[in-house]
């Protein structure tokens, strides 16, 4: 059975570094999450820009879940525009992968450096195909 990720340390200056002192605004306000959906034949292309974390995970889950349901053969997820990704977001991606597999579809993923690092550190990279390459 698939075990969802439950730990990680955000990089310096990432989500953990956004909080200012009590009563002060965050040092770096989070960038809004931008989702772009483009149908490509039997697959749906889904590009994400911004930060993927506990605050944006539900938005990603709803939008990507709908894309998985509508796609004929699967979704190609482009996370190269993601500037931060934590384990809450990874759990969303793992759950959506399970949803796709349960429907006989695939979820391919191309990530930014921070996404690829999280996948490597958690041992989950092989679970997501790269576009044109099967997942293991």
Automatic annotation (TrEMBL):
<dbReference type="InterPro" id="IPR002645">
    <property type="entry name" value="STAS_dom"/>
</dbReference>
<protein>
    <recommendedName>
        <fullName>STAS domain-containing protein</fullName>
    </recommendedName>
</protein>
<dbReference type="InterPro" id="IPR058548">
    <property type="entry name" value="MlaB-like_STAS"/>
</dbReference>
<dbReference type="InterPro" id="IPR052746">
    <property type="entry name" value="MlaB_ABC_Transporter"/>
</dbReference>
<feature type="domain" description="STAS">
    <location>
        <begin position="46"/>
        <end position="111"/>
    </location>
</feature>
<dbReference type="InterPro" id="IPR036513">
    <property type="entry name" value="STAS_dom_sf"/>
</dbReference>
<feature type="region of interest" description="Disordered">
    <location>
        <begin position="8"/>
        <end position="31"/>
    </location>
</feature>
<dbReference type="Pfam" id="PF13466">
    <property type="entry name" value="STAS_2"/>
</dbReference>
